[in-house]
Amino acid sequence: MSHPRHIAIIMDGNGRWAKARGLPRTAGHKAGVDSLRETIRAAGKMDIPFLTLFAFSSENWSRPRSEVSDLMGLLKLFIRRDLADLHRENVRVRIIGEREGLAKDIRGLLEEAEALTKGNSGLTLVIAFNYGSRNEITRAVQRLIADVASGALNEGDVTPEAISARLDTADIPDPDMIIRTSGEMRLSNFLLWQAAYSEFMFMPCYWPDFRPSHLIEAIETFQMRERRFGGVTAQEIAL
């Protein structure tokens, strides 16, 4: 099997990593940022074209206010410290998720990251921020309804391709592989439409313990699988 073109990761387990060490949850999130940096660097070296990271769910706002504040602070710190390095390494940053209602400073930082790196041609780093797949699909359907109502689209033209073209990931290939750390085995409202034929890798380590070796392990497992996309293999036909 060929190298995955697009890898998506649900970075899970920061809080449990901290709890196991008797540390505050903030320590887990800080350690998770270190893993994030290493993973981005490793993906770039492996020539993986697209890497999507589930950074902040639209459901995460329900967490304690102090934790949300800490997470926003880490996001700001990451962009301020790492954006120049990402740009220098030819990384193109894309943000997916709902932007309406975000604080002005957060939205400004996200848009700055996209604007600065839009001309880069290396790894496309997709950050899912304030992201929820059902919200994304709902927004896409609303656009379709508006296009049909205005006459820009006929009802018969409402196809899976038309929906895909209105998602936040319109010009991004569907993920070949989705990794989730911490041993949890669910998607948690992440890329539900795009994951139709993704290979899932559920890894037991907490995100702060995730290293490039884990990424290599996941890719090697991916390469041993046979993807059918709803069809059958030539070997199965022969049988």
TrEMBL record:
Keywords in alphabetical order: Magnesium, Metal-binding, Transferase
Cofactors, names only: Mg(2+)
Enzyme class: transferase
Annotated residues for binding of Mg(2+): D12, E199
Cofactor binding note from Swiss-Prot or TrEMBL: Binds 2 magnesium ions per subunit.
Pfam families the UniProt entry points to: Prenyltransf
InterPro entries on file: UPP_synth-like, UPP_synth-like_CS, UPP_synth-like_sf
One Gene Ontology CC term in the entry: cytosol
Coiled-coil ranges (or none): none
EC number(s) reported in the record: 2.5.1.-
Assembly description: Homodimer.
Record protein name field: Isoprenyl transferase
